[in-house]
Amino acid sequence: MRIANWNVNSARTRVTRMTDFLHRHDIDVCLVQETKCTDAQFPYDAFPDYEIAHLGFNQWNGVAILSRIGLTDVETAFPGQPGFHKDPTKPQEIEARAISALCNGVRVWSLYVPNGREIADPHYDYKLRWLHALANHVSHTTGPLVLGGDFNIAPLDAHVWSPAAFVGLTHVTEPERQAFDRLLEAGLTVTSPFTGFSYWDYKGARFDRGEGMLIDFQLARDITATNSLIDVKERAGKGASDHAPVIVDYAL
Length: 252
Known about the structure:
Helices cover 20% and strands 26% of the residues. With 252 residues, it is α+β, with helices and mostly antiparallel strands. The chain has a single domain, classed as Endonuclease/exonuclease/phosphatase (Deoxyribonuclease I, Chain A, 4-Layer Sandwich). The strands form two sheets. It has a six-stranded mixed β-sheet, with no helix packed on it. Strand 7, helix 2 and strand 8 form a beta-alpha-beta unit.
């Protein structure tokens, strides 16, 4: 079973790149983040070989699962998943950040973890609460499980191009890293590459300068990974997403 996760930064903008990627790497299941469209706007017809589950409410966020090996029992949130609104007096509605399904007997989750924005921003607290609820849910589940997506956390200093450049910023703080570790304490293992980078900001020619971050991962339990890679060449292409796809092979 070959599973990919990819923050595509707009499915409609990059639909051709997505179809080419799925064919080029012979992907069985693709966990997609930041589709930036509603359910009605997702380009389903571009993927005739795949069953698709998509969750999107507007032009922000959006997650999807594309599977050619079965897709059943879809869930569009995990228990306890918090919502968000920048105005604390308004309803804190669930965002389109998590979707799961059973694919060939494996429960897979496509996850777009909140960014956090700034340490003093309410979005940062939302991010930590979101991750805590996810870890709590995972700790109470059984069976083969794969979480894949944009975690918006660099677990180690080696996962950012310059630790000094991130002092006082999100993605590298100790509470965020502890939240990532809680997922591992729930029995998950990082099965995707734990070296290299998966994201390069469009600004400042970061990709050409090698100034990236590793924030896209797959975590799994009760299933064995046999190989993994980050398709950095996909990030190099014209009109690419700012994230590179992550690919992991699993033995069933």
